[in-house]
Specification:
Layout (H helix, E strand, L loop, with lengths): L5 H10 L3 E2 L18 E4 L3 E7 L5 H20 L6 E7 L6 H9 L6 E6 L6 E2 L11 H5 L10 H13 L1 H11 L3
Parallel strand pairs: 3-4, 4-5
Antiparallel strand pairs: 1-2, 2-3, 5-6
Helix pairs in contact: 5-6
Length: 179
C-alpha cells in the first residue's frame, strides 16, 4: 500500500475550514464497512470522505463510499443547514484513464474524485481537482451570504425554515399537497 496522503489532506482541509475526525462515526456502514484506511474531514459547509480502493473494484467502491457518505450527511443534517459531500477514491497506482473518466462522468455518484500517487506538485494526481480543497481561504470563512429582498410570504417561509429547519418545513409542505 502507498503512503496515503493524510498529511496533505490535513493541510489542504485546514486551509478551507475542514478538520479530520479522529474516528469514523459508527452506525453508517449499512451493508458495507469503510476501508480501514478511510478518513473523514468535516466543517460547517462540507465533508470530505477519503476512501482507498483497489482499481479492480473502483465502480463498486464508488457506490459503497457514496452510500456511506450520504447516510452520514443525512443523519448529521438533523434539520440544520445541509453540507456538501465529497468522495475521494484513492488508488495505489495510476489507473486506466478510461476507467477514471467513466467514473468521474457518471451521474450515479456525485462529487467524486479519483486520486493516485504521481510526480505532480502535490504528489497525488487528481487531488488538485477536488473542488472543496481549492476554495480560497476567504470563501471558506464566509458563512453568511447577502440575502435577497423577499416579499411577505417568502419572508414568513424563511422565518419558519430558520426556526424549525428545512427538513421539517419540507415535510410539512409535502403533507399539504394532495396526491
Amino acid at each position: 500500500m502507498p503512503d496515503w496522503p493524510y498529511a496533505t489532506l490535513d493541510m489542504l482541509s485546514d486551509q478551507v475550514g475542514l478538520s479530520r475526525v479522529e474516528q469514523l462515526p459508527a452506525g453508517y456502514t449499512g451493508a458495507v464497512d469503510p476501508p480501514e484506511e478511510a478518513a473523514f474531514w468535516v466543517g460547517t459547509y462540507a465533508g470530505l470522505l477519503f476512501w482507498p480502493v483497489a482499481e479492480a473494484g473502483l465502480a463498486e467502491a464508488a457506490r459503497a463510499g457514496q452510500a456511506w457518505l450520504d447516510a452520514l450527511l443525512k443523519a448529521d443534517e438533523d434539520g440544520q443547514t445541509p453540507i456538501d459531500g465529497y468522495l475521494v477514491l484513492a488508488l495505489a497506482s495510476a489507473p486506466e484513464p478510461e476507467l477514471v473518466r467513466a467514473l468521474e462522468l457518471s451521474t450515479q455518484v456525485c462529487r467524486k474524485h479519483v486520486i493516485w500517487p504521481d510526480e505532480c506538485e502535490i504528489g497525488w494526481r487528481g487531488l488538485a481537482a477536488v473542488g472543496v480543497l481549492g476554495l480560497p481561504r476567504e470563501a471558506a470563512r464566509v458563512r453568511r451570504q447577502a440575502r435577497p429582498v423577499l416579499d411577505a410570504e417568502a419572508e414568513a417561509l424563511w422565518r419558519r425554515i430558520a426556526e424549525h429547519g428545512h427538513l421539517a418545513i419540507a415535510a410539512e409542505e409535502r403533507s399539504k399537497v394532495e396526491l
